[in-house]
Amino acid sequence: MSVPDAAIINSLRRLSTATLATILSHRGITRVFMHGVAPLPGSRPRLVGRAFTMRSVSSREDKVAQDRSMPPELNLQRRGAEECGPGEVLVIDCRGNAQGASGGLILFERMRVRGCAGVVSDGGVRDAYDIVETGFPVYAKAVCPPNSLVAHRFVELQVPITCGEAAVYPGDYIVGDPDGVIVVPAEIAAEVASEASAYEDKEEFIIRRIRSGASVYGTYPLTGDGLAEYEASQRSKG
């Protein structure tokens, strides 16, 4: 990981998906939240890393036997587990179909041991309880014990994909929290992280003011005395 990458990831790690969605919407970018993709039941993970993508098509019976006989080195699920780099997030395009698992404990444990940042899939995931026990961040559309061959044939790595109705390009920044997963385009990630950090500083001030008994009027948004108080607090930090 380069120094700029590490700095961006460290900044994004402190930010919520809600804040990032707001900042990206200010830039006119709204189709970046992954709909229907959530943390595995019983987990509250945080995930940040650059996207390593895997694309699927629907399974078809005449290809299943061919895929079963394939050497492990050519199987894209296994290649994804081995080639997704340390600090990267494997993002799996399952076309929103959760009838077959896009992965499970063995592959994801290999990724955890290798230092990958996590997995995001808009399909199913099996072995959910055991995965949660490891602490490895995994987000999916549903828990699904049947294996991938029921629904998916994985056909490409490191190409643009759609996951949870959001476009993901290799190298985009992926941020996950208990609310879900959002995509931060790589080209603007540094600026978005900086703007979002400033936005969250202001929101923390607003929350403190609300908790002290202040009305939402003048506090959310900050105006009048509330704004003056916030600006004074910022000057005192400088």
From TrEMBL:
Q: Which Pfam families match?
A: RraA-like (PF03737)
Please provide the record's keywords in A-Z order: Magnesium, Metal-binding, Plasmid
Cofactor(s) needed, names only, are:
Mg(2+)
Q: Which domain of life is it from?
A: Bacteria
Task: Indicate which residues the UniProt annotation says bind Mg(2+).
Answer: D127
Keyword Metal-binding in annotation: yes
Picking any one GO molecular function of the record gives: metal ion binding
Tell me which InterPro entries the record gives: RraA/RraA-like (IPR005493), RraA/RraA-like_sf (IPR036704)
Provide the binding site for substrate: G104, L105, I106, L107, R126
- Name recorded for this polypeptide: Dimethylmenaquinone methyltransferase
Q: Which organism is it from?
A: Microvirga ossetica
